[in-house]
Design goal:
This protein is mostly helical. It is built from three helices and no strands.
Amino acid sequence: MCGGVCVLGDLRDAEPTVANEYEASKYADRAQDRMDRICVGLDGVELLHCEYEVEQPERENYGAQKDLRAQWYMAIWAGFMTLFTFGTLIVTSLGVHFVRQTLHQSAATNESAAGAAIAANKANEIM
């Protein structure tokens, strides 16, 4: 049972890096070069269609990079929430323990008070 510590430890290796973002930007540059080579000589709707076909994978790659970063941040958040949940469990357990002790002490106090009342009644009967 390793909890949030293992989650956070595993995520350090999965952090989206600057290299990933650099690769995505290089891919965008290559898409522009491909667009210039492939779509040369086309006009009108054919040119727009060609540019869309060349640009679409670049947009998907950019979106995938953004999704990966969002997933990574959410995994970090989930790891911290796991740690906070365990902290809350410990604090709640301590609270329940102290309430239990208070109830036991109250019961003992009531028994002592009942014993004192009985002793007072016996003392009054003697007189």
